[in-house]
Amino acid sequence: MSLVKVKTKGQVTIPTRLRERAGLNVGDLLEAKLEKSGKITLTPQTLLDRHIAESMEQIKKGQFYGPFDTAEEMIESLHRNSKRNKKPSKRTTGK
């Protein structure tokens, strides 16, 4: 077991031996999760894993459009929804 110290800004250093055994390299992403028991777990992630997890959360919240049968349907939906979601500029509101 290795002890690590929490430093300024909440930083910790993972000991070299553990990093090597886990196959971690500089720049790798870790997902930090607080378990119900109070234990903090760090799980290696790829950027793709993170985007998939974020997308799944958006789907659960109903924050998505589609599915689409064609690219044209998707583009039309993007245009339609971008107009609806645009905030009026100060020029158009006179403020």
3D architecture notes:
The chain has about 100 residues and is α+β, with helices and mostly antiparallel strands. The chain has a domain at about 30-85. It is built from four helices and two strands, in the order H-E-E-H-H-H. Strands 1-2 form a two-stranded antiparallel ribbon. A hairpin with a 5-residue loop joins strand 1 (about 30-35) and strand 2 (about 40-45).
Strand order of the largest sheet: 1-2
Radius of gyration: 22 Å
Task: Give the low-confidence spans.
Answer: none
Principal-axes shape call: elongated
> What's the rounded overall pLDDT mean?
85
Helix content: 40-55%
The profile of the biggest β sheet is: 2 strands, antiparallel
Number of strands: 2
**Helix/sheet category:** alpha+beta
As a percent range, the share of strand residues is: 5-15%
Number of helices: 4
Indicate the multimeric state.
single chain
CA-to-CA gap between the ends? 62 Å
Spell the H/E element sequence.
HEEHHH
Key structural traits:
95 residues; 2 strands; 42% helix; alpha+beta
Give the arrangement of secondary structure elements.
Blueprint (H helix, E strand, L loop, with lengths): L15 H7 L6 E6 L5 E6 L1 H14 L10 H15 L4 H4 L2
Antiparallel strand pairs: 1-2
Summarize this structure briefly.
With 95 residues, the protein is α+β, with helices and mostly antiparallel strands. The protein has a domain at 28-85.
